[in-house]
Amino acid sequence: MPSNRNRMFDANQFLLGTFASNCSGGMSVTKVPERWVNSWDNNLKLARLLDAADIDFMLPIARWIGYGGDTNFHGGVLETMTWAASLAASTQNINVFATIHVTANHPVVIAKQIATIDQVSRGRIGLNIVAGWNKPEYDALGLELPGDHTDRYGYAQDWFDVVKALWSRDAAFDWDGPHFKLKGVLGDPRPSRAIPILNAAGSQEGREFAVRNADFLFTPAIDLSRSVEEIGALKAQAAAIGRSVGVLTFSHVVCRPTEKEARDYLQHFGKDNADWEAVDNLVRLQFAHAHSFPHDLLALIRDRMAAGHGGFPLVGTPEQVADGLISLHRAGFGGTTLSFVDYAEEFPYFRDTVLPILAEAGIRRPVPAVAAVA
User: Fold this and answer.
1) Which domains does the chain have, with CATH numbers?
2) Could you write out the three-class secondary structure of 77-135?
3) Which residues, at least 6 apart from 86, have a Cβ–Cβ distance to it below 8 Å?
4) Alpha carbon distance 186, 102 (integer Å)
5) Separation between Cα atoms, residue 65 and residue 76, nearest integer Å
6) How confident is the model over 169-199, as pLDDT tens digits?
7) What is the chain's Cα-based Rg?
8) pTM, whole model, 2 decimals?
9) How far apart are CA 311 and CA 325, in angstroms?
């Protein structure tokens, strides 16, 4: 029988997941021919590799239009709710998140979809809430981008309050909120256990929303000394209202037998063959509409945007990559996502060489013996 708590809450270890395998190119804005192809077959292959290796979760990105350039980075995206449901039905242990834009999805529909996948997965579904920032996507969907972060997160709060009510009330009810007016709604089915909630937020309003509502706040790790202070402040902010919030980040892995091999490959895919037009479109939109990255540092990480969408670089030998992950743990992060140029081809080497070092360091459980043959 499954535990009555999701493994995201139970894991007494540094959480590891993958990010954006549902998107064309994954997290690397590159033109190399071996860049990630986000087909269902590739996602299923990756999910089964991760599941056998006891990796904790898979997190998708929700996108509706790409970033242009030669590759139209993230122009092809598997929709996240159906992706999560399909992977949940095809795996045994791993948690799968659905990433949902609140303005494009009605909360009554989402509440029922997540409750349904809770049954399919036996409690291995999570919800990543996106308040919205990418104006071209709003234009593509015929929606208005709320004027400021206060408006965006005010809408997101009413949206999530509806979802929580549907998951907790056992009788039909009316809802008279600032954005939703509902009559006689009922959540049936309801989730069998607590659903892990994730939110990425950089603005003050966004972080207040995450601290009030999320179990995990997702934020970049650019300067780890700065991260230590940031994580401490976030945890104190949560504690002040009687909550506990884990802080996760995202990383990009280039792991090879020698440091030279790793750095040569980073140069090859992340600089010499980067899709710089798409990178610059991505950076421009981040500057204009989002606070996910600190704006005083964003101009310094253009190269990181090409290599791994701004993720923390884990580049080098297995020992160097493991040291980087241990440094994130010491900075106070509760876990990180991983991305690779080709997830399914590169993960097995990471599994076989890096995960045992993390287990020896005491921040991960040993890799199951069956993983190597998965």
Assistant:
1) 7-373 (3.20.20.30)
2) ECCHHHHHHHHHHCCCCCEEEEEEEHHHCCHHHHHHHHHHHHHHHCCCEEEEEECCCCH
3) 40, 44
4) 19
5) 8
6) 999 999 999 999 999 999 999 999 999 999 9
7) 20
8) 0.94
9) 12
